[in-house]
Write a structure and sequence with these properties.
The protein is built from nine helices and five strands. The protein has 192 residues and is of the alpha/beta class. The longest helix has 20 residues.
Length: 192
């Protein structure tokens, strides 16, 4: 396993449905904590990069929330599952290479095998955070149910995970979200 420059003090594994606000929440946390303290890591980054290379696609366009990405999403999910079946830690190892910040926010944890890999690698420093939003909130953000995507393991793999260490409710109430973020930030500071 390629090890990061230093071991993290805290690894927060964020999960949630499409358009629940995982990226919004992790970016908000990073902006408050500072990029020198906190790194946002995306398991989908190396997946999309490798997929783009093997399929001669535009990697940058696969990173945004575009119709371009949506056109390839189902096949990308299938391809990523094949990679994970061969090596469950493949994408996890890739995203931690060379990371030196003490706090890591993994913004798109989707499977029990992702959580297990981080727990085995970083033990008690690993905590789980579930971002939840109502279907109505997600629809207001542009979500529509897509067969083969929203019922695939990439969206449902952690539905029955059990007890998350933190649950962030992101239904569109800014004050409520702010209070939850402040509580999580206090916890992060307690680990530094």
């Amino acid at each position: 396993m390629a090890l990061p420059t230093c071991s993290p003090r805290l690894v927060l594994l964020f999960s949630g449905k499409r358009k629940s606000g995982k990226d919004f929440v992790t970016e908000a946390l990073q902006s408050r904590l500072g990029a020198e303290v906190c790194a946002v890591l995306r398991l989908s980054g190396p997946l999309k990069e490798q997929y783009a290379q093997e399929h001669s696609l535009d990697f940058q366009r696969l990173l945004d929330a575009s119709t371009y990405k949506e056109a390839y999403r189902k096949d990308m999910i299938r391809w990523g599952e094949e990679k994970r079946q061969a090596d469950p830690g493949f994408f996890c190892r890739k995203i931690v290479e060379g990371v030196s910040q003490p706090v890591w926010l993994v913004s798109d944890t989707r499977r029990v095998s992702d959580i297990q890999w981080f727990q085995e690698a970083y033990g008690a420093a690993t905590k789980t955070v579930r971002v939840v939003a109502s279907e109505q909130s997600r629809q207001q953000r542009g979500w529509m149910f897509t067969m083969g995507v929203d019922n695939a393991e990439s969206e449902c793999g952690l539905d029955n995970f059990g007890d998350f260490d933190w649950v962030i409710e992101n239904h569109g109430d800014e004050q409520c979200l702010e209070e939850q973020l402040e509580s999580l930030i206090e916890f992060v500071h307690s680990r530094l």
